[in-house]
Amino acid sequence: MTNKLKVAVLGGGSFGTAIANIVALNGHHTYLWMRDTENAEKCQREHENTRYLPGFKLAPSLQITSDLEQAINATDLVLVSIPSHSFREVCRQIKPYLKADAIVVSTAKGIEPGTFNLMSDILEEELAGQAIGVISGPNFAKEIVAGQHTATVVASEDEYVVSTVQSTLSSATFRVYANQDRGGVELAGALKNIYAIICGMAAAIGAGKNTQAMLLTRSLAEMGRFAGVMGGNPMTFLGLAGVGDLILTCTSDLSRNYRVGYSLGKGQPLDEVVSGLGQVAEGVNTLQQVKEKADAMGVYMPLVSGLYSVLFERRAIADVVRELMLGEQSNDVEYIGNSHGQ
Ligand SMILES: NC(=O)c1ccc[n+]([C@@H]2O[C@H](COP(=O)([O-])OP(=O)(O)OC[C@H]3O[C@@H](n4cnc5c(N)ncnc54)[C@H](O)[C@@H]3O)[C@@H](O)[C@H]2O)c1
Ligand SMILES: O=P(O)(O)OC[C@H](O)CO
């Protein structure tokens, strides 16, 4: 598409800033909305988000504002990059300014506390009638603004949403693949944060490469099993939003969730770790939501249960690891001719 759109990105944190920068560099009329006026003015003046992405100059054409109406009014595409705990609140705020044919896409990787809503469920509820979608993939904000090559997945049942997001976001450094399994892609992005905490914790206690490979593979099995029960397609987990993002987040301390796990593994208390982060680590809340849902639905998720018992039941990591290792021996791959699901 050569057509230039008006695009609004909501949320002036790491990812909102990175994604807005891509869209602006692609020549679209782009607004990045952040709630703090002083910070918006500073970022606009300096063409840099010094709090979240220091050292990276942003596209000169990017308009950074705290005026929500200015950002949303007459906008063709809205990308919502607000953490899951505040996502619904911001959707409600934009509703009066949205034009009827605007596309709204979530970039968040979390689950709403209490409701088990994914972010696109919230879009459906709060912005009924709008065309919606999600993006998710191996996408560290810091590497995106540094121009490192990567790719993401856009998922929507609406072909026009998929093609618009692909043409608006794709660039020489950022590819955008399509998927119709919106729930599966979204769940993949949320679930991998739990396993990143586990892998960070494993690294902190000295886990080697064998252990890392086992954890990654069994995490993938657990994610696919849960998504299958929730109505997603387990095969989605073989793509960029699944295994791609899982590998990324579980193997790098650029991940906030991995860093949370690492600090916990070194013995720091959870509340201290979370408050010291200064940015969102969705995995802690996602763990609580998924544990509750898996218990209610009878889904076997030993890694989720193990992490939950370390974080919220004060069990020793070594005891939980021993229990996991001595648990019932089970099948390797669940989708090739066995139906035991363990
Ligand atoms: N950082 C990444 O590399 C990355 C990549 C892909 C997806 N994500 C996902 O994107 C979402 C946002 O993550 P992030 O990394 O930008 O987080 P962040 O912690 O860097 O920033 C969050 C931003 O949201 C803003 N915010 C929070 N509540 C708000 C509200 N009520 N109204 C307006 N603004 C509000 C904060 O002020 C902050 O600017 C998360 O779900 C995350 O999992 C992050
Ligand atoms: O820093 P994290 O752990 O929130 O991960 C960021 C992105 O989701 C990576 O794709």
From TrEMBL:
EC number: 1.1.1.94
Annotated binding of sn-glycerol 3-phosphate, by residue: 109, 137, 192, 245, 255-257
Top-level taxonomy: Bacteria, Pseudomonadati, Pseudomonadota, Gammaproteobacteria, Cellvibrionales
Purpose of the protein: Catalyzes the reduction of the glycolytic intermediate dihydroxyacetone phosphate (DHAP) to sn-glycerol 3-phosphate (G3P), the key precursor for phospholipid synthesis.
Reactions catalysed: sn-glycerol 3-phosphate + NAD(+) = dihydroxyacetone phosphate + NADH + H(+); sn-glycerol 3-phosphate + NADP(+) = dihydroxyacetone phosphate + NADPH + H(+)
Keyword vocabulary terms for this entry: Cytoplasm, Lipid biosynthesis, Lipid metabolism, NAD, NADP, Nucleotide-binding, Oxidoreductase, Phospholipid biosynthesis, Phospholipid metabolism
Every Glycerol-3-phosphate dehydrogenase NAD-dependent N-terminal domain range: 6-159
UniProt domain Glycerol-3-phosphate dehydrogenase NAD-dependent C-terminal: residue ranges: 181-321
GO molecular function terms listed in the Swiss-Prot or TrEMBL record: glycerol-3-phosphate dehydrogenase [NAD(P)+] activity
Gene3D superfamilies reported for this sequence: N-(1-d-carboxylethyl)-l-norvaline Dehydrogenase, domain 2, NAD(P)-binding Rossmann-like Domain
Protein name: Glycerol-3-phosphate dehydrogenase [NAD(P)+]
Pathway it works in: Membrane lipid metabolism; glycerophospholipid metabolism
Catalytic site: 192
